[in-house]
Amino acid sequence: MSSRAWVTLATNDSYGLGALVLAHSLRRVGSSYPAVVLITPSVTDPMRERLGGVFAEVITVDVLDSQDAAHLALLQRPELGITFTKIHCWNLTQYEKCVFLDADTLVVQNCDELFEREQLSAAPDVGWPDCFNSGVFVFSPSVDTFTKLIAFAQERGSFDGGDQGLLNSFFSDWARGDINKHLPFLYNVTSAAFYSYLPALKHYGQNLKIIHFIGAAKPWLQQFNFESGSVDAPDHIRGFLQLWWDLFVGQVHSQLD
Ligand code: UDP
Ligand code: MN
């Protein structure tokens, strides 16, 4: 078994669609490493089956039913529900090194070199570049780290109410520490960049490794014309959405009942 794995999370079927396309994008670029998806019981059986067809492991995590530290912490901070689910990735101790990818990311070039980085490596967040964006990060599974994260969340909460705030407070030396833990922005190009700095996108775009469709406008919620096979979106963003949809139509939708 590989000691390295890609990890994502889907707590419902909608994000499950994102996870399916993400897994196909990893196959498309020929990654040598398996992909694992964490799901919650709210994911339906048919989606579970689909995920099982493309992920090496589909692992159900159920924070609410377990009588552990996470459960106790959650009782005090119910708003951190999805955040706690993401943190479960530290329990994947069957692997030594993992890269977490949000279900709304798309790998466009092989990124296997990410596994050479150390915990916690991540790319800057465009909203506040002294914080890392928690949609793509390199980590080392460890039950001890998981327990510490839960205790930290219980005591301090998260300054943004989500996993990004919590992880940035916990790994607080990221901004000023080892520069090798700063991933190039190309490993987590958030969709805001498509709008805010178009010349840079034109100049560096061909080196892009991972696209991250942050915010409410997820690819699976866009208008897609099945007759023409094209997405309805502004020019500069259409290319990336089209890539997501091409994988969806070619690899996922064609397999749906
Ligand atoms: N997620 C999920 N269910 C939800 C919300 C989020 O499974 O209802 C997972 C999913 O992997 C998602 C990640 O948590 O990609 C982070 O949320 P999202 O990508 O929506 O946040 P953004 O990147 O837009 O800030
Ligand atoms: Mn995301």
UniProtKB/TrEMBL annotation:
Subcellular location: Cytoplasm
Top-rank lineage group of the source organism: Eukaryota
Function: Self-glucosylating initiator of glycogen synthesis. It catalyzes the formation of a short alpha (1,4)-glucosyl chain covalently attached via a glucose 1-O-tyrosyl linkage to internal tyrosine residues and these chains act as primers for the elongation reaction catalyzed by glycogen synthase.
Family under the similarity heading: Belongs to the glycosyltransferase 8 family. Glycogenin subfamily.
Protein name: glycogenin glucosyltransferase
Record organism: Spodoptera frugiperda (Fall armyworm)
Residues of the full protein shown: 1 to 257 of 855
